[in-house]
Amino acid sequence: MRKHHRNGNLRFLHASPLDVTEPGHADQGAAARHDLAHHVVDQASATADDELIVLLLPMGFPSEDAVAALRAPERTSESPEIRIQSVLFAVDPETVEDTLWDVSPAVEFDSRPALPAVHETPKGEPRFMPEREYCRTSGEFLAAEVAHSSSLLAVNNLDSALAPHHPEQWDRGVELIGEIAPHLTIVDATATPRRSSSTHAGMFASFDEHAAKQRRRPGSIPEYDGAAASTVVLRTSQPVDPALFHRALGTMVAGACRVRGTVHFHTDPSRTVAIEGVGPHVWLEPKEQEPTTLDYIASVLNASTAAATLPDRARRHVSLLPDGLCGCTIAITGSFLDGGQLHELLHAATGAPVDEPPSTNPCQDTPPTQTKETP
């Protein structure tokens, strides 16, 4: 934190982790969060009850980390109560689609959880291994921020010479934001109101920390009201065979800018595995904080690369599964998606015959949810 100034009943605080030099902190991220929390608490103690504090985070600093810092257990009972009214993310809608496909590392101050990635053995065979250190891409950072935030401020590049305004691309970006984060209240910050930009008459939405945590859980799928233009939601009541799913996955997610959901494998149908994807990167990770699940995912996928024939377990009838256990639920967002073909690919990955009679499992196979295609 380095400076603040008053403007009516608002106090602006600029967070700058690069200025943190406190001793005793091993990494810059922890030091930044430590400094942020203590400085905000100090400022809040000197703030009148009717004042609002606007905390401006630097590029690359996750809002989730800022909220966690303000909830740090090291705060004492004498610390003032801080209520987070809104978490706002500012972005130019024209850049959203390109950013989702951007594979350059995001400027972050912390490492992220490990994810399975493909490596080659000495014989040149692809194998999946847990990545113990992983740096999120710019697209993954954007997806995480819009999921955690309660409102989005749609801004446009002020220098038209550098980035000319394209109304069609702006509208496409707003539509895409509405699909990957339909909970967001979108506020148009530009001087000239644009079609389909604001969704709440310029008012920011209240921040619900519990709901934000639920949205940030791996594999979480938002609730759609039926207006999704290019999102297909696939469901099947049966678990998938690792080898068949591995082969079908590339075709299923081709051209998708966002993928999320959960899958169950025949090898362990009681264990839920999350699937996530942003731009060209698609990965599997534990649904919950279970370190052993990461190794399990890698072992299952490695075994699937060596499977020459479909194992007998792939023919296991769904009635052997616990009641209510869904095999897969996957939401795929992208342009020109064929919902019928995607559903066939997922169904085939279960190893069940195409003409199999309807399942008696409470979680029935359902056709893909899709309303229209984006031209």
What are the key terms here?
alpha+beta, 375 residues, globular, 3 domains, three-stranded mixed sheet, Hypothetical Protein Yjia, Chain: A,domain 2
Describe the structure.
There is one protein chain. The protein has nine helices and 14 strands. It is an alpha+beta fold. The longest helix is centred in the N-terminal third of the chain and has 18 residues, at 28-45. It starts with a strand and ends in a 6-residue tail after the last strand.
CATH architecture of the largest domain: 2-Layer Sandwich
Biggest sheet statistics: 6 strands, antiparallel
CATH H-level homologous superfamily name of the largest domain: CobW-like, C-terminal domain
Rg over CA atoms: 23 Å
Low confidence ranges: 1-10, 17-26, 109-113, 308-324, 356-367, 371-375
Q: How would you summarize what this structure contains?
A:
By secondary structure, this protein is of the alpha+beta class. It has helices at 28-45, 63-70, 93-100, 138-148, 167-180, 209-215, 242-252, 291-305, 339-348, and strands at 3-7, 10-14, 52-56, 88-91, 115-120, 126-131, 151-154, 185-188, 231-236, 256-265, 268-278, 281-286, 328-334, 366-369. Helix content is 27%, strand content 22%.
